C-alpha cells in the first residue's frame, strides 16, 4: 500500500547569500569562483569532503581532459578565463597535461580548487547534501542543507544546480526530461603491487586464437555489452576462468545492464595498473539504446553495488591468472560513480545534434562549441542554462545538458560553469531573475574579464 508522511519542521537559517551553488564538481567549482570574483556573496555545498567531482573524488572516471586539449584546442586555443587558470595551476603541480595520471592528478584538482575557493572568498559547506528547495510560488530562494549537525537553511538570491543530475531543479518543479536516458556509467579502479616488467614482457607473447575471439564475441552478443576488444590479450585466460566458473569478464547486473572493463587496463604507473568499468543496457542494439533510468535511486544503487563487486572479482582474476599480478591487490575503487548522461532540465532552449551539425548561431551565445569536423564550431546559447518552470535558478554542467551527449565533455562543463557563475552574479547586480539579465552585458563581461573569444553579435 502506498503511504505518505507529511513533515512540518522549523529549520535554522544558517546563511543568507547572493549565489548558492549545489555541487562541487567540474561545473559547480568554476561557477562558484566566477560568482565570488564578480562580487557576489557565494556559498558552495557538496556531499564530499573535497572538491572536483569526477576529476577529484571520481579520479577522472569516464574520460579525460588532456585528450580534448591535445586534439581539439588547436583551432579553439587552450582553455581561457577561470577554467584555463584552473588547468594551468594544476599542471604546475602535475608537470604534464592534466588527466594523464589519475591518482596524482585527482588530488591536485582537489587542492587547486580548494585554494581558488579560499582566494575568491567562497564559503564552503562540505560533507553536506542539498535537499529541499526553499520555494515561494515558482521562485526558488535557497536550499535546505542536511549536515552532520542537522538540517539548516541557506537563503539565496540565485541558486545554481550543478549536481550533475538536475536534482535541485527536479525538486523545485522545473520541467524535466523524464524516462530512461543515455547513461553509460563508469567507475575507476586500480590494482597495486604489479610486477609491471613481467606483465609488459608477457603481453606480446599472448596468442589469441580464432576460437578465443569467437567465444568473446558470442558472450558479448549474449549479454549485450560492448568494448571487450580492449582486453583481447586476456581472452585466452578469461576463457579458462569462465569455463571453470571463476570469473565473468562481462557480468549482468540484474536486468539493468552488463558491466565490463570497457576501456581495458591502462599503462602501468609506479607498479599500479588502473582500469575503468562501464555498464550498457542489457537490451543494447546500438549506441543510441544505452538507456538506464538514472533518476531511479534503486536502479542506480544496484548498478553501483554490482560494479564494485565486479571490480573486486576482476582484481582476483588478474591475481590468479595474469603473469605479473601474482602479488597484486585491489588498491582502490573510486567513491564516485560517474554517469556520462543524466536526467536533465528542459531549459529555454534545447541544443540539438542538428544545431551542432549545421553550425548554429545565436544572439545569446556564451561560448563557441566545436564539432568533430576540424575548424567547425557552433554557438552555445545562454538560454540553455535557464530552466523552464522555476525562477531564481540556473542549470550548469550536466544538469543543463539533454542532448547531444557529446556536450557533457569536461572542458565544456568547466566553461559552462564559469559562464553560469558570471550570469548568476550579474542577475544579483541587476536585481533580476537569471532569465531576465542583459545577455549582451554578460557577453561583454565574458570577453573583457574572462578573456573568452566570443564572436561579436
What do you see in this structure?
- This protein has 457 residues and is α/β, with parallel strands linked by helices.
- It has two domains: 13-178 and 343-448, FAD/NAD(P)-binding domain; 183-333, no CATH class.
- It has helices at 28-37, 66-76, 81-94, 102-120, 167-172, 196-202, 210-223, 235-243, 297-321, 353-358, 410-430, 439-448, and strands at residues 13-22, 42-45, 123-125, 129-136, 139-147, 150-161, 181-182, 186-192, 251-253, 257-260, 273-281, 291-292, 329-333, 365-370, 377-381, 393-395.
- The strands form four sheets. Strands 1, 2, 3, 4, 5, 6 and 16 form a seven-stranded mixed β-sheet that branches. It has a five-stranded antiparallel β-sheet with strand order 9-10-11-8-13, covered by helices on one side.
- α1 runs parallel beside α4, α1 (28-37) packs parallel to α11 and α11 packs across α12.
- The relative contact order is 0.17.
* Total strands: 16
CATH homology group of the largest domain: FAD/NAD(P)-binding domain
Mean pLDDT across every amino acid position: 87
Structural class: alpha/beta
Radius of gyration: 23 Å
CATH architecture of the largest domain: 3-Layer(bba) Sandwich
Helix content: 25-40%
Shape, per Cα inertia axes:
globular
Task: Give the amount of beta strand, in percent.
Answer: 15-25%
Largest sheet: 7 strands, mixed
What is the highest CATH level, the class of the largest domain? Alpha Beta
Query: What is the CATH third-level topology name of the largest domain?
Result: FAD/NAD(P)-binding domain
Amino acid at each position: 500500500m502506498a503511504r505518505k508522511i507529511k513533515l512540518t519542521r522549523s529549520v535554522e537559517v544558517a546563511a543568507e547569500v547572493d549565489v548558492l551553488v549545489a555541487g562541487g564538481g567540474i561545473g559547480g567549482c568554476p561557477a562558484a569562483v566566477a560568482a565570488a570574483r564578480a562580487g557576489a556573496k557565494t556559498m558552495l555545498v557538496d556531499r564530499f569532503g573535497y572538491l572536483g567531482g569526477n576529476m577529484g573524488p571520481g579520479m577522472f572516471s569516464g574520460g579525460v581532459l588532456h585528450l580534448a586539449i591535445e586534439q581539439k584546442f588547436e583551432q579553439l586555443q587552450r582553455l581561457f578565463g577561470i577554467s584555463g587558470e584552473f588547468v594551468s595551476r594544476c599542471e604546475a603541480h602535475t608537470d604534464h597535461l592534466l588527466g594523464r595520471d589519475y591518482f596524482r592528478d585527482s588530488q591536485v584538482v582537489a587542492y587547486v580548487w580548494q585554494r581558488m575557493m579560499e582566494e575568491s572568498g567562497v564559503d564552503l559547506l562540505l560533507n553536506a547534501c542539498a535537499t529541499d528547495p526553499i520555494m515561494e510560488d515558482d521562485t526558488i530562494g535557497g536550499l535546505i542543507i542536511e549536515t552532520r549537525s542537522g538540517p539548516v537553511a541557506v537563503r539565496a538570491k540565485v541558486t545554481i544546480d550543478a549536481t550533475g543530475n538536475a536534482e535541485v531543479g527536479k525538486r523545485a518543479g522545473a520541467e524535466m526530461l523524464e524516462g530512461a536516458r543515455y547513461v553509460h556509467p563508469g567507475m575507476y579502479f586500480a590494482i597495486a603491487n604489479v610486477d609491471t616488467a613481467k606483465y609488459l614482457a608477457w603481453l606480446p607473447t599472448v596468442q589469441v586464437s580464432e576460437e578465443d575471439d569467437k567465444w568473446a564475441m558470442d558472450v558479448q552478443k549474449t549479454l549485450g555489452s560492448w568494448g571487450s576488444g580492449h582486453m583481447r590479450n586476456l581472452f585466452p585466460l578469461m576463457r579458462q576462468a569462465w569455463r571453470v566458473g571463476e570469473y565473468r569478464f562481462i557480468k549482468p547486473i540484474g536486468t539493468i545492464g552488463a558491466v565490463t572493463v570497457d576501456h581495458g587496463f591502462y599503462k602501468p604507473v609506479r607498479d599500479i595498473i588502473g582500469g575503468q568499468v562501464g555498464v550498457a543496457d542489457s537490451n543494447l542494439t546500438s549506441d543510441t539504446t544505452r538507456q538506464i533510468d538514472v533518476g531511479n535511486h534503486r536502479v542506480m544503487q544496484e548498478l553501483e553495488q554490482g560494479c564494485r563487486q565486479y571490480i573486486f572479482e576482476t582484481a582476483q582474476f588478474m591475481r590468479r591468472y595474469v603473469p605479473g599480478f601474482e602479488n597484486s591487490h585491489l588498491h582502490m575503487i573510486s567513491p564516485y560513480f560517474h554517469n556520462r548522461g543524466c536526467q536533465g532540465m528542459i531549459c529555454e532552449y534545447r541544443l540539438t545534434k542538428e544545431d551542432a551539425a549545421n553550425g548554429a548561431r545565436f544572439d545569446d551565445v556564451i561560448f563557441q562549441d566545436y564539432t568533430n569536423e576540424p575548424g567547425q564550431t557552433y554557438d552555445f546559447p545562454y538560454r540553455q542554462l535557464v530552466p523552464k518552470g522555476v525562477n531564481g535558478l540556473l542549470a550548469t554542467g550536466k544538469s543543463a545538458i539533454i542532448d547531444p551527449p557529446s556536450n557533457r565533455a569536461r572542458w565544456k562543463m568547466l566553461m559552462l560553469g564559469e559562464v553560469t557563475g558570471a550570469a548568476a552574479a550579474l542577475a544579483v547586480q541587476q536585481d533580476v531573475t537569471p532569465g531576465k539579465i542583459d545577455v549582451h552585458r554578460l557577453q561583454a563581461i565574458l570577453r573583457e574579464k574572462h578573456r573568452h573569444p566570443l564572436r561579436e553579435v
